[in-house]
Amino acid sequence: MLAEPRTWHLDVAAVRDLTPRMRRVRLTSPDLDRFDYLAGQDMALTFRRADAPPVRRRYTIRHYDRDHRLLDLDFVLHGDGPGMKWAQAARPGDSIEVVGPRGKIMLVPHAAWHLFAGDATAVPGALAMMEALPRGVPALAFLQVDDREERQSVEGAWGPQISWHYEEQAPNGAAGLVASVAGAALPLGRGHAYLAGEVALVTALKATLQSRGWAAEDISAKAYWNRGRANAGHGEPELKAS
Ligand SMILES: Cc1cc2nc3c(=O)[nH]c(=O)nc-3n(C[C@H](O)[C@H](O)[C@H](O)COP(=O)(O)OP(=O)(O)OC[C@H]3O[C@@H](n4cnc5c(N)ncnc54)[C@H](O)[C@@H]3O)c2cc1C
Fold first, then answer.
1. Would you list the DSSP string of 17-45?
2. What domains appear along the chain, each with residue ranges and CATH number?
3. Mean pLDDT for back-to-back runs of 10 residues, the chain (242 residues)
4. Rounded CA gap, 164 and 151, in Å?
5. Cβ atoms of 106 and 38 closer than 8 Å
6. pLDDT for position 145
């Protein structure tokens, strides 16, 4: 059963760069032992600003450690925006108001296999969901990041297939990623796809799968951000992918 979202007051316990553009902020609180979630869900962080109304930004839960009351969120350091700036400046002891767990995209248990695709913002969720799969369930991921230094590995010995694509080879475009999803050899049986990232990318990925005959109910698609436009105050892009 899905846990009800609630408001948490969390402190930064640690900050570490996983790659040059992906920063992990580890959050903690004495009552985090009562936290519960499903892989794929996210948290909405509230950023209060002196000169403007507060805004929320959403980040996928990458890891949760109940014993040590730690929650890890991974931030793409993309350049601008209250979420990115907060992560860039975060130091142990900082406090943040967080609402969650949020989100209805999570592993579909009856799927024979799973496909993940998206950009750097989709990496935390794709890796978290792949790590939560029962061992041996086939999983493929198609992920576009800046360059080879942005690659990450899935924890555990069991190895899903990750096909990395690099923005430096296709600035502001994802034709290579979309073509790779269009032409990929897929496992037999009824799979489920999880698509996340920039609005236009998610739209293109969804259309590609549908043109391969995928039914809408086998695709969970979520637009995370919109190129050139800040997300709305509730944390989602103004324009949603179709
Ligand atoms: C359910 C959900 C889960 C998400 N999980 C994660 C996650 O785990 N990690 C993560 O990093 N993001 C995640 N995102 C995306 C993140 O919330 C957005 O990227 C958000 O716009 C970041 O807020 P900001 O304040 O930094 O930038 P904003 O104020 O929203 O935008 C400022 C400017 O930055 C640009 N911008 C925003 N994001 C990016 C980007 N990634 N790359 C390049 N330019 C960008 C905008 O186009 C705009 O021009 C998630 C979003 C949703 C809805």
1. EEETTEEEEEEE-GGGGG----TT-EEEE
2. 6-102 (2.40.30.10), 113-225 (3.40.50.80)
3. 90 98 98 96 94 94 97 96 97 98 96 98 97 93 96 81 87 82 96 97 97 97 96 87 48
4. 7
5. yes
6. 96
C-alpha 79 to ligand 1 mean position (Å): 10
Q: What tokens were used for 48? A: 């209060």
Ligand 1 centre distance from Cα of residue 136 (Å): 32
Nearest CA to ligand 1 atom 20: 225
Pocket test for ligand 1, best of 62, 76, 220 (most atoms within 8 A of CB): 76
pTM of the model: 0.96
Q: Which atom of ligand 1 is nearest to the CA of 236?
A: 53
Q: What's the pLDDT score for residue 227?
A: 94
